[in-house]
Amino acid sequence: MSPPAASRAEAPEVARGRSATWTALVLVPVGAAVVFMLDTDAEPAVQGLLASLAALQIMLALYWKRSRTRQR
Hints:
The chain is mainly alpha-helical. It contains three helices and no strands. It has a domain at 43-71.
């Protein structure tokens, strides 16, 4: 038996905190990837690794966002 819809609703501050956490989790690897891409002396393998990590973080964040909106 699933809980009633009212008990699944979260407080606005919880939603803001969760969104801010995901935003930070996405911006850190994306920012690091951009900085390493702009550095001409950086190792290309590190640039690719950071770009892949940033893409993975973005995909996870979009999946989480889509699953959260689908539950409502």
